[in-house]
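tool=predict chain=A
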Amino acid sequence: MSWRFAWLSEVPERAAQLAEWHVAEWAPLIPGFNVPDMLAEFATHDGGEKIPTTLVALDGEDLLGSVSLLENDHDDIRAYSPWLASLFVRPQSRGSGLGVELVRRCEDIAQRLGIARLYLYTSGQEPFYRRLGWQDVASVSLRGVQASVMGIAPRALGH
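tool=predict ok
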């Protein structure tokens, strides 16, 4: 695979497709989640190693996936911050290692920003993150769906 990575702000023409993917994937967990709001949020991700930001993976001009670094990822779990969020790899690119690469790149950005502890939440992907060194922090119910808040310690960052 010939992946290349860019800030979403560098390829704004990809934002609509990414917003559609994100809403399709996570609307059941997030009240009122919709494409226009996702596009408005993406507009605040203006690139670079800061919060908020979104990194996308491309193969040529094809969008493959993304990961974001956010201050807050869900109104019901604000006790934790900042977040590795919205890790998404399109179905036909899954199993290629791209998800791992996106997680590692987000962790590296967090380390360079001096973030002491990075969090994420997931419902069903806990084994994937545990293999990457993430630890369970809390169990939460989001709109009736059980999810796990996971964290990674600073010593585990930077690979």
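The longest strand covers residues 62-70. The radius of gyration is 15 Å.
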